[in-house]
Design goal:
The protein is built from four helices and eight strands. The strands form two sheets. It has a five-stranded mixed beta sheet, with helices on one face. Strands 4-6-8 form a three-stranded parallel beta sheet. The chain has 138 residues and is α/β, with parallel strands linked by helices.
Length: 138
């Protein structure tokens, strides 16, 4: 789900759930958080790039199918996990870059915004569609 490749002193983190447009479920967010923690502490990594696998999506946001099966406590835990991943990007002691390809919606947009720099392909679509449902973005 989360790939980490090293290119010299750059850690490239790729969210790879192409069948779900790289949408975020608990397993994906947990793994993303864990890999970001490791990279933050790795002195051999001088910068981190976050991207999505494929050309359709960076991260299309929350996995709505998964989300519909959660109870209130599980949903709160999942939200806290997303905030933790975002905070890791915001506070990383090295530059973070979002390489945005395709959809970066909801939580995906928030992850891109948490990075120091955003580099978007011409095909990138960024947004917070949850506001149309009366949900406040993270």
């Amino acid at each position: 789900m989360i790939r980490v490749d090293r290119e010299d002193a750059v850690g490239v983190v790729t969210v790879d759930r192409q069948d779900a447009l790289n949408a975020l479920d608990v397993a994906t967010l947990t793994e993303l958080r864990d890999r970001l923690r490791e990279l933050a502490q790795d002195d051999g990594v001088r910068a981190v790039i976050l991207t999505g696998a494929g050309e359709k999506a960076f991260v299309a946001g929350a996995d709505i199918k998964y989300m519909s099966s959660l109870d209130v406590a599980q949903a709160k835990e999942w939200g806290a996990l997303g905030h933790e991943a975002g905070r890791l990007l915001e506070t990383m002691p090295k530059p973070t870059i979002a390489a945005v390809n395709g959809f970066a919606l909801g939580g995906g947009c928030e992850l891109a915004l948490a990075c120091d720099i955003r580099y978007a392909a011409a095909s990138a679509k960024l947004g917070q569609p949850e506001v149309n449902l009366g949900i406040i973005p993270g």
